[in-house]
Write a structure and sequence with these properties.
The structure is a single chain. The chain has 14 helices and 15 strands. It is α/β, with parallel strands linked by helices. The chain folds into three domains: 182 residues, NAD(P)-binding Rossmann-like Domain (Rossmann fold); 192 residues, 2-Layer Sandwich (Dihydrodipicolinate Reductase, domain 2); 32 residues, no CATH class. The chain is globular, with a radius of gyration of 23 Å. The protein starts with 8 loop residues before the first helix and ends with a helix. The N terminus and C terminus are likely disordered.
């Protein structure tokens, strides 16, 4: 699918191997944003970008490919970021204060890509100014902030999207369709991780700009890996399980990058669910070998959506007859010795090649479609069902995990942060009572 062509919802679903409104409603109802995509072909949305740093300019690159978008303004307190953005849109107006951009009558919607601790106030002010908002994840610096932002969205009725791009990633949509149809049996566990091998730092032209440019490293503006990376993957876990965890525990440390940073470089959390399911999330940025993945485990099979593959438990190893003979021979000698089983077949994972979720490699990780859906929603003035709620709960779970790490305690899900979300409402109400 070429991004600069008008998006055709029917073709998009056909390419996924999914058909029918029922599947759409059950698995990914936010795709309804594209329902009127052909009818809105002649529309033009005027967008302002608040925070055109590296992430902001990445989002900008997709906005500029959408024929329905006109980027008219930028706001940032750091002039070099404004200068770089102007190279992409020379005609845009620039402001050194986001409030000036919000006062710009021409701006209809804003994209917020600023440091975490500024998201809440900017979003609240934007909605009060009548603007529709796409806010990067994690949406708030605290759970209170997330709650305020979500309730402001309900109060004013403005369109509110969050940067949870996996909601629009074709691999994940297909995986969830299969999961929710029972293809892999009951889901009992989700293991998610995001590993890197770098210091996560950006070059600083002058020492006094350290905390401005490397804001992710400092507690006053960031909560580190939990809010920058976990937000994507925890949402995948609750999406797969169809429920919220009720407890979380975790540990974090600065293990390798002892360079003055205040946030952890090594984290692990365990989220537990009322019926016994578990979800783990971890990140180590001193080793990249295993990269990133969500391993979704069911009784009948496993899904690795980032890799774009799934694996059934009843896989039959088509090994040559010689290997079978050696295995049979080894079994006769060692029998069922408990120390490790046979050395040739301790597990089946190494032999199972799996099956690809899609018959093609997606051209997007979902970011472009996420932004396109936001544009369509604003033009049609229709908030897609579930998208604000999924972003809200993903943010809450990140922040709850961070608090469990900081306190060194097993934390219960705070009942005051439950929202009226039908997919999780029964569970939330039971726990709250």
């Amino acid at each position: 699918m070429e991004h600069n062509e008008v998006i055709n919802r029917r073709d998009f679903l056909r390419n996924l191997g999914i058909a029918g409104a029922g599947v759409l409603a059950a698995t990914s109802p936010w795709l309804s944003a594209f329902a009127a995509v052909n009818e809105t072909a002649g529309e033009r949305l005027k967008v302002g970008l608040i925070g055109p740093g590296s992430r902001g300019r990445f989002l900008l690159s997709f906005l500029l490919q959408n024929p329905k978008v006109e980027v008219v303004a930028f706001a940032d307190i750091y002039q070099p970021s404004l200068d770089e953005a102007l190279k992409m849109v020379p005609t845009a107006r620039t402001y050194n204060n986001y409030c000036q951009l919000l006062a710009d009558k021409e701006v209809e919607a804003v994209v917020v890509a600023t440091p975490l601790n500024t998201h809440c106030q900017i979003t609240l002010d934007a909605m009060d100014a009548g603007k529709h908002v796409y806010c990067e994840k994690t949406i708030g610096y605290t759970m209170d902030e997330c709650f305020m932002m979500y309730n402001k969205h309900l109060e004013v009725g403005n369109i509110f999207f969050t940067g949870q791009q996996r909601l629009f990633d074709p691999r994940y949509i297909k995986a969830m369709d299969m999961i929710h149809h029972g293809t892999f049996g009951p889901i009992t566990c989700v293991h998610a991780f995001w590993n890197r091998n770098n210091d996560w730092r950006r070059e600083v032209p002058s020492p006094e700009l350290e905390k401005h440019i490397n804001w992710r490293m400092y507690k006053e503006s960031s909560k580190g890996l939990m809010t920058e990376l976990a937000c994507h993957q925890l949402q995948v876990g609750t999406w797969a399980l169809g429920k919220l965890p009720d407890k979380v525990m975790g540990h974090g440390s600065i293990t390798y990058w002892k360079d003055g940073r205040e946030v952890y470089d090594n984290i692990n959390c365990i989220y537990t669910f009322p019926e016994g399911e578990m979800m783990t999330w971890g990140s180590d940025i001193a080793n990249k070998f295993y990269g990133l993945e969500e391993q979704i485990l069911g009784k009948l099979g496993t899904v690795e959506p980032e890799k774009g593959k799934y694996y059934f438990e009843d896989y039959v190893d088509p090994s040559p007859a010689f290997l079978k003979m050696v295995r049979d021979w080894e079994q006769k000698i060692f029998g069922d010795m408990a120390f490790a089983g046979t050395s040739w077949t301790p597990e089946t994972a190494k032999d199972n090649p799996g099956t690809y979720l899609l018959d093609h490699t997606p051209e997007t990780d979902g970011t472009s479609l996420n932004l396109d859906a936001f544009v369509e929603a604003v033009i049609t003035k229709t908030q897609p069902r579930r998208i604000a709620e999924e972003g809200y709960y993903a943010s809450i779970l990140c922040l709850l995990g961070h608090e469990a790490i900081e306190r060194g305690e097993i934390m219960d899900f705070p009942k005051e942060y439950y929202i009226d979300y039908p997919e999780y409402h029964t569970q939330a109400q039971t726990i709250a009572e």
